Amino acid sequence: MHQGQESSIQPNDPVLKDAIQKLVGDITLIRGKFTNLNFPTSPGWRFNADGSYELIGGGVTAAHYSTCFEDSGRFTNTNDGTGTNVFGTAGVVLTTTANANGWAKTTWDIGSSNAYLFASDPVFSASLYINTFGFDNQQMFVGVGSPTSNSGAAGITFTDASFGFKLIRESGIINVYATNGSGSASTATLLTSIGASGVDHLELIAKLHSDESIDYFYRVDGGALSSVTTQSTNLPPSSTAATVCSIITNNHNVAQIMTLTGLSMYYSR
């Protein structure tokens, strides 16, 4: 830790300027001093009420993986036989078609069976666009892990080892949840609700603190980034292999078209 006096923290302090450039969130001042201010970046900075500040986190070294769904051959694309996974200029479009048991799934494999993508504090993010989400009980998952996609009323098995986001249309609106599964049970928290017609652009971000908790954030239509939502129960085991995937399903035998455009996905640790 670098210990400084209150009077030594000046606007031109190079350490302070560098930290502020990394800031995500609001600055709180008490008598000119920073108060317990965290910078959730790598590296990150913490400012304390006594005027001290320190570097936190593991530094800048990390492995980064990203995709804009450039080519279908890079992914494993499955569906119920009537659903489709179509790659184009906007990314991948998953569609269930008007089939009561419809589902479609695109899986991004970024590691071998020994990759253990839940280990080492990973970050996941996705950018997606809801085209059609037209009937109650339709479901979607995007995140790390590969939950089972089932035909009919079974829907998506959210208890499978995973963390990410699920969207479910309920009572005429689309609810966006933080979700994670341990392999036998799951935890979910409602983050926000969006219009029943869809046509919304979502940016979804999740940070897994391995074996401790998961932080979730979201942004709708380019608005402000949400405050953090943290879940600490039913975490996926770090010793479990994983892939990154997006799934949609009609669920509950609804013969209704459902369409989602996946623009991009990102994983790092």
Q: Could you say which structural class the secondary elements and strand pairing correspond to? A: mainly beta
- Highest-level CATH class of the largest domain: Mainly Beta
Do you know the CATH architecture of the largest domain?
Sandwich
Record field, number of beta strands: 20
User: How large is the count of helical segments?
Assistant: 1
| Low confidence ranges | 1-9, 23-43
What's the shape?
globular
CATH topology annotation of the largest domain:
Jelly Rolls
User: Which percent range describes the beta-strand content?
Assistant: 35-45%
Largest sheet: 8 strands, antiparallel
The mean pLDDT is 80
